[in-house]
Amino acid sequence: VPSVRKLSAQLSVSVSTVLQAYRILEDRGRIEARPQSGYYVRPPLAPAAAVPRVSRPSSVPTKVTVGSLIMEMLKLSTQPGVAPLGGAIPPDQCLPTKQLNRIQAAIARRTSRGSNFYDLPPGCKELRVQVARRYIDAGCALSPDELITTCGCTEALNLCLRAVARPGDVIALESPAYYGHLQIIEALGMRALEIPTCPQDGVSLDALRFALDDKPVRACLFVTNFQNPTGAVMPDETKRELVELLAARDVPLIEDDIYGDLGFDLRGRPKVCKAYDAGGNVLLCGSFSKTLAPGARVGWCAPPPRWRDALEELKVTTTMATPSLPQLAIAEFLASGGYDHHLRKVRRYYAQQVQLVSAAVQRAFPEGTRVTRPAGGHVLWVEMPPRVDALDLHARALERKINIAPGPIFSAKGKFRNFIRLNCALRYDEMIERALITLGRLAGDA
Amino acid sequence: VPSVRKLSAQLSVSVSTVLQAYRILEDRGRIEARPQSGYYVRPPLAPAAAVPRVSRPSSVPTKVTVGSLIMEMLKLSTQPGVAPLGGAIPPDQCLPTKQLNRIQAAIARRTSRGSNFYDLPPGCKELRVQVARRYIDAGCALSPDELITTCGCTEALNLCLRAVARPGDVIALESPAYYGHLQIIEALGMRALEIPTCPQDGVSLDALRFALDDKPVRACLFVTNFQNPTGAVMPDETKRELVELLAARDVPLIEDDIYGDLGFDLRGRPKVCKAYDAGGNVLLCGSFSKTLAPGARVGWCAPPPRWRDALEELKVTTTMATPSLPQLAIAEFLASGGYDHHLRKVRRYYAQQVQLVSAAVQRAFPEGTRVTRPAGGHVLWVEMPPRVDALDLHARALERKINIAPGPIFSAKGKFRNFIRLNCALRYDEMIERALITLGRLAGDA
Predict the structure, then answer these.
(1) pLDDT at B44
(2) What pLDDT score was predicted for residue B180?
(3) Interface confidence: ipTM more than 0.95
(4) Cβ-defined contact of A89 to B118 (cutoff 8 Å)
(5) For A176, which of A338, A348, B35, B360 is 20 to 30 Å away at the CA?
(6) Chain B interface, mutation test: which of A325, A333, A409, most B Cβ atoms within 10 Å?
(7) Is B102 helix (H, G, I), strand (E, B) or coil?
(8) Helical H segments across B373-422, by residue range
(9) Using CA atoms in the order A279, A282, A288, A291, what is the torsion angle rounded to 10 degrees?
């Protein structure tokens, strides 16, 4: 695009007006700034390939058994020399570790007493204030007193499931589901019921309604924004309908919003179902593991009042307290305004990475391959031709030191046999390009 | 005692020989050093009062329901202006928070990458090396690869119980039991069976044998060293017998060794049951929350091989990872040798505090009161005359801003109605002395 100076002269407007206009275009993903060079038109985010179809999961609740395959994939995710297309782990350059460590050290110097104590539930007040404040952007007026901090989102989900359901109970999930949800349900002895899900708009409410009529669903566990693995975002109107549907039937919704801050559209973030929860039926969960500090183990849940005491007791009997110093450091980072600036950078970066990997998949994979067009997060969900077996592909890729997440781990039934999930978070380089070409060739050989 | 110089002259031995002799007497608790003053004979640790008798719990397994009373007591434990005789929380001056914070800041400067990542199970290798090394003193040759780090001992116990038992299963505990164990069992829907326990030697093996013949005990959960609340230490020979007894019946033992490093006898620490576990039947758990950093949430478990995979999966589905930076900092603190020096100070301090509180109880409480003589830890278990109701005393004490742990929370059956547990960890001062006098008067009024 024309340089700022040129356009300013051409249109007879001030330089700052042009800059502002370019900034808006940048936020919308239309152009991008390159340091010391200027602004450039950005390739369109949506790739040409078709997206995967709405899922058709089995209608029978299932005991889950995907654990060991997942553990293997997770452990390989950070192994040097293995192409990191497996676990959805944020890369170092997307984490403000230095700033957080500096803040942490400063707090520790200020108060040795306040940095090391049993921070019993509900946990760090300063942090709860900041988290509550951020949910205003998600349409949700939360009081800090409604939040309980946890050791990451995993603990939040684990506790919420235990608060609302018992072993043997049926939990409705997306299909494909985040494998971590399946693992938690397996570990708690509950049963998963997978609900047809659109890779763009999330869970099908028609299908969910049908399932609720037919099965003893005890609770729903959905990722409503930038679902893992599809990237689906449930439209606001659907969120409202979902909350009403579940409230009418007294089925609680556990809402996993861990990716909510990682949308590619910089104009704002999508709402949460909790924003429509007038009756107190939504247990909202989140964490800073994907945006700031996977190593800090700081997450939260916001349960309605009727489950609050139970959740505090479950928290005390599961980990007693949440780490005290990391909570204070993250609270200070948020209060300083550094978080939004950081998110801006990271969201642009992920948008670009997802685009690059998607383009490479379309070049390298066999005809008939479908790829999602996520609006946030950092993973792609790839549907390969039916003859390709993802577990087989996974095994053959590992021999070549390429780690991927095979489709069947996203289903308690071992469905999605010809799907894989690709993590796009690590900087696209020659190693990743070569890995994608190899994957495409292996898939083509099938 | 005579000054070092004087005794050296008197016996014609060198000053360093006298110093060494005094040091040995100090380690044995016979004399104590007072800064700028010299060595003094120490009052005997064992108070004159009788100790409580062996417990006689009910023989019927029970669903546990003590949660809300405990939450209230915990939350009041750190409230300013309330005499802190409730929760067993280590005081700031017994935690090397400044050193740990300094190490943490240094590590963070060295490696931002290495300080913030999903430290998936088994967790930080450096820390596991140090923890394994320390168990040599407890008679136990552990490999670092046998350990899994956890978010505190609470998570370790929670995961171990879930690995070996299911909801509804019967877990054998001490009587009185640590209320935290009762809470975990309640939260997991398991049932507690309380076994008669001697306040000096721990669980009665005769009673346990009888219970195992009679009830479907799925697992045992015992604090074998400095049990909370009694301070009991199971003699080594009994530990060996216990391990053999349980192995013969294939009943796993979850061993909570959280107080193992806090004995008053500085010559060494007691063994763990795990030291005798030839057959792989003991799941050893511990943490640094009582000795170094309650705020760091760093503990561990050492499961036998048959439960290892299950435990790693349970860990991943409960909190995913253990905080990364605190693990590295504690590992470095241990590797530097600072831990033993720190423990020496803290163990002397707790011995003195327990002695001071015990003496005050004997002065202030009504005739017939019995007090334990713990050999480690920092709590006292007080049996008052049968007419005194501990729940009533607890309520009346709270009105006077005194927090205590009433006996019934240490039993799923609400037993120990005339017992209280006193935390002795905070520096004995006028506030605590006044609180104990008030408590004694309230108990006497009953």
Answers:
(1) 59
(2) 95
(3) no
(4) yes
(5) A348
(6) A325
(7) helix
(8) 390-399
(9) -100
